[in-house]
Amino acid sequence: MIAVLVLALVAAGTAALTYGSVKIPYADVFDILTGRATDPSPFRTIVLDVRLPRALLGAAVGAGLAVIGTALQALVRNPLADPFLLGVSSGASAGAVGVIVLGWGAGLAITVTIPAASFAGAFLALVVVYALAREPGGGFTTGRLVLAGVAVSYILSALTSLILVVSARADHLQEVLYWTLGGLGSARWDMLAVPLAVLALGTAVLLALARPLDLLLVGEEGATVLGLDTARFRAGVFVLASLLTSVLVAHSGAIGFVGLMVPHAARMLVGAGHRALLPVAALMGAVFLVVADLAARTVAAPQDIPVGVLTALTGGPFFLWQLRRGRAREGVTA
After folding, report:
1. Residue 109 and which of 16, 144, 322, 333 are 20 to 30 A apart at CA?
2. Nearest to residue 59, comparing CAs of 210, 241, 262?
3. Burial letters for 182-203: b for 16+ Cβ neighbours within 10 Å, e otherwise?
4. Cβ(145)–Cβ(132) under 8 Å?
5. What are phi and psi of 234, to 5 degrees?
6. Distance between CA atoms of 196 and 60, rounded to whole angstroms?
7. In terms of pTM, does the model score above 0.90?
8. What's the mean pLDDT in 1-10?
């Protein structure tokens, strides 16, 4: 399965380098990537400086969101858990927008200030949602989790709008629109090191925690009996999820529903065991977002649609289907 997904990712990446407002023949793309094309043609600039970093950033963001969604769904034992639906992406966006409008750390904004503010916003949003959704007995229900996430997202979106209105600057509007809709159009080579490094480290840590994540699937009491300190473990994974989300949002904006849809598709292929589920979900998320970004660049070419719009158009119906499916299960149980 991993080999097939790697081939699919290579195919999606090749298509992303080939198609767009300007179609480049496959042979020219191959020559450019292998160094055979040494002439300074426009194709070389488009492939190496525009489309290749964009495809790599899309793969990193898609893989990261899928891994985060997989971990959160196990952590709260809820199939609707997702960085976007739980308000984590909105919190990260609010932090980034605040830094943009206030103009803090102009020279280090991309590499230091915006990721730091995104992390603070993402972590605070996740803590608030967790506190609001938690029942007296310590469990979660789908309704409470979704309502808490939606409420926090609305509040943070309103806060973002308020910051934008108070700033009253036209140049801020374009930047804020980028953060709220999500897009990969600003990808550059100097932006890739941080998200790729954080993705590799975060995925490695979650793979090392595969057994505790599996224990949570049997219930909190069962995991505690088997020796897992669930409270401390949840707190640690929440911090890790916030860190990963903040870094990704700082480079791509808030792209929703990837972390909701991809883990479900991965479970259909390899089951619920996280040692196999996490790498498969990461590869599927990378393929999905690269293909979605390719569609965003070609559907209305030469206009570039924010990829977050397309993921919302596909994720919204999937979310409603999951709600209906959960209600049907509750009816059968009753």
Report:
1. 16
2. 262
3. bbbbebeeebbebbbebbeebb
4. no
5. -60, -45
6. 6
7. no
8. 96
